[in-house]
Write a structure and sequence with these properties.
Layout: H1 18-25, E1 34-37, E2 46-49, H2 72-75, E3 149-153
Antiparallel strand pairs: 1-3, 2-3
Amino acid sequence: MAWSITDTELQPDSPITSSLMFRMRNGGIETGATAVFHQAAAPLGWTKLVDIDNRAIRIFSGAPSDGGSVDFSVAFGRTATDGHALTVAQLAPHTHNSNSGRVPSQFGGSYLSDGNDFSSGDAPATKSAGGGQAHQHNIDLRVRYIGVIRCRKD
């Protein structure tokens, strides 16, 4: 059970009870409770916990849990995505036909000397090109943050 001090107890004409004195002396926080502090060392009456390091804090309404597999500084230190080479299955379906009877050499073909008209769609396709190399996208996840320590009340 957490201790608290109500507004009624802090009124000028309210009596100072032993319960109120106990809660004020102990900061209203039970022994064993954990909290975070934005400072290098644990405050008086607290012990710095070092079992968890380099993590982000997730605030939600469910039960406490841990998750993830990548440390905070690794995930948020990235400036580019991992490299990825497209597979044929990931490309949009398409062809590279020529209806002029000529496929320029820079597109993997050669000029045809017979001058045939391929306007009916029977034109030869170009040869495949491309190196299949991986590519990446720039991204900057170096978010601003504050470092805190986790402590347990003595």
